[in-house]
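Fig. S4 source data, part A: sequence.
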Amino acid sequence: MARRKRKAPSINSSSSADIAFMLLIFFLITTSMDTDRGLARRLPPPVPKEQKDQDVDIKKRNLLLVLINSNNQILCGDQYVDIKQLKDLVKEFVQNPFNDEHKPEKVEEDVPFFGKVMITKNHIISLQNDRGTEYQAYIDVQNELARAYNELRNEISKEKFGKLFEALTEEQQDAVIKIYPQKISEAEPKNYGDKK
């Protein structure tokens, strides 16, 4: 009796390509991708054509100049400060609680929910940095400026309404923003000095 040779079963190679494709899709879907993070900032509206050529006259007392040099040192007004001091200096400038003649002038405004209040509505914080400033130092300063405004708004919201600014109605928030409008002007980076 003659023995028949058995054929060895062959592997279907077309299905391995499908499996590799399915694995590729699985790993693409399940792996996490790094996403870009940034500051949440609303850009100012474009300047009208008739206003472009006009210079705005700002009184010196209404302007707080914050400079970051190429060594990441912060000059606030006329003194070098640590990043931890910046928030409190900005709060004091914006608030001007003692009506200091070297800080922003106070103007009486009629604000909904608050009535007539004295506010520093003409204040401006001018932020400038050197081209050699580290990005993290710039972000840290931005965060401290935003924190100063957030704390001022939360303080007056708690005092008047008994809750934080974020928990207020839209009308209440608008009233608080009228008292503490966020006025930060960012100038184009310049070369103040070489990094040492």
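Fig. S4 source data, part B ends here. The two ends are 96 Å apart (CA to CA).
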